[in-house]
Amino acid sequence: PHVLRLSVMLLLLLLALLSPRAAGDPGPRPGSWTWTRTRPRPSPRDSDVYLDLDLSSVRHRVDTRFLSFTIDASLAEKERFMALLSSVKLQTLTKALRPAFLRFGGSRQDFMEFQPGESKGPRNLTSEESCGLTLLPWWLEEQLKEEWAQFQEILIKEDLEADYGDLKFTATTVDQLYSFSSCCGLDLVFGLNALLRTKENSWDGANAALLLEYCQARGYRMSWELGNEPNSFRKKAGVVVDGQQLGRDFAQLRELMSRFELYRQAGLYGPDVSQPRHRRLYCCVCVCVCVCVCLSYYVCGRDTSLNDFLNPDILDTLNDNITKILEVSVKHGAPGKPVWLGETSSAYGGGAPGLSNAFVAGFMWLDKLGLAASRGLQVVMRQALIGPGKYQLVDPNLDPFPDYWLSILHKRLVGRRVLRVEMLSQLGQGERVRVYLHCASKRRYAAHTHTHTHTHTHTHHRKHQQTNSPQTVIKYPTCPRQNVMLNGVVLKMVDDRTFPDLRGTRLPPADRLQLPPFSMAFFLFHEAGAPACS
Ligand SMILES: *[C@@H]1O[C@H](CO)[C@@H](O)[C@H](O)[C@H]1NC(C)=O
Ligand SMILES: *[C@@H]1O[C@H](CO)[C@@H](O)[C@H](O)[C@H]1NC(C)=O
């Protein structure tokens, strides 16, 4: 084990979407290599990418819970499935992603009504106590997982038809959700139903008041949202709520919260709009929330392809959308308010089978995390930890999908401070290699040795010529398979409580970094001498 000075660690996240062909390569391969056809055959040197790193200043500082995630409200459609949250395996996997927000919401939140009941059981539990609150016997867990896998088909069909029945949820659901988030060290964000409306079409907060009352009586520290995708209320419920009305609804919720000791200072986030063009919804709501929240998906799950998942133009739509959101939030009403991606994944409609749950989804996921941080977004909430569809972090058996492993590497390695990095390359379409630079997270790592071929990256430290080569570089490479391989080993839990080895590989001293095509890697530079990270 090799413990180094932490204050100067730097982290570089590199995604190679497409790598140019090396000499002797037989030619274009299936997939989206097409750019090589329009250019003369590149010489091997063309595969070099030069990076200009600015280590002198911090560009943005993201929230400590930058990488966060959601639980889709559909888990509560049948109360018994909430018991899956007591699974030791799920709790182990989730704890490893803290600190994080846990947003409970989604399309069904606007069809859910709270049925208050007796407040039961001990209050104000510590997180340890919350973990042991309900024991899920193995046979029940197996049975629930099986039923859950089948029930997902029904949920996906409902989503497809935007056909949601009214759904009552009890105190048990709230207790299970809160125990889970408390046990796993998460900050719970609960999405309230905005479709409970009066004849005059203003929000009816009576049911929310019952829920806040119950949660306060239980000592539940949490924050709130109101409505999911208000821009699609017409499609889902035949109701139109315009920006001004939604703004008044949020103000009403804020007033309601102020009547509760525990929620007077609590977070209120919104409006969870899924299209940046709905300016009025943002403008009217962002003024009275603590954080301006938007939703984001690249493609439709039923109508997409492998090429889309690797297409830099599609990845870049996120950048354009962030520009629009920041414009709305800065120019109209909420300058300086943090902006979050409050629900986001690769493909909407539950994800794309065979893509959203495969290694290839990682390009969208890591690029989104890198891009959002480089644009100063504070939090990115991944849809979803668990829920119906293909874009979850865990499968119906509660085993990790590839994006889970990338999330955990990101959580462990990537720090809050975002630095500037520019890429200079002969690739023409340089976007096919994506690079993000952060100060490393303050944790310690050990290293061992390994080598690689193909894309070469030269780093050049602007303004800090004296510190040319970092002393030690540790690489966390992942390889394209259905599963995620780290350092050539398929990542897989050892058992319900034990993680596989997630250590990187210490590279021999060299002036370039190498990256194979279609791969992602985190490079950790020790002793980089980055003033921005000290
Ligand atoms: C439990 O939480 C409630 C609500 O925050 C608070 O009023 C009460 O003092 C807490 N009790 C203990 C024992 O901490
Ligand atoms: C950006 O917005 C467009 C238009 O609203 C949408 O089609 C696209 O999916 C969005 N992309 C992302 C990544 O949010």
UniProtKB/TrEMBL annotation:
Start and end residues of each stretch annotated as Disordered: 23-45
A molecular function (GO) term: hydrolase activity, acting on glycosyl bonds
Main location: secreted
Catalytic reaction equation(s): endohydrolysis of (1->4)-beta-D-glycosidic bonds of heparan sulfate chains in heparan sulfate proteoglycan
Chain intervals with Low complexity compositional bias: 23-37
Location relative to the cell: Secreted
Keywords: Cell adhesion, Disulfide bond, Glycoprotein, Hydrolase, Secreted, Signal
Alphabetical list of InterPro entries matching this protein: GH, Glyco_hydro_79
GO biological process: angiogenesis involved in wound healing; cell-matrix adhesion
GO cellular component terms, semicolon-separated: extracellular matrix; extracellular space; membrane
EC number(s) given by UniProt: 3.2.1.166
Signal peptide (from-to): 1-24
Family: Belongs to the glycosyl hydrolase 79 family.
UniProt name for this protein: Heparanase
Organism listed in the record: Salarias fasciatus (Jewelled blenny)
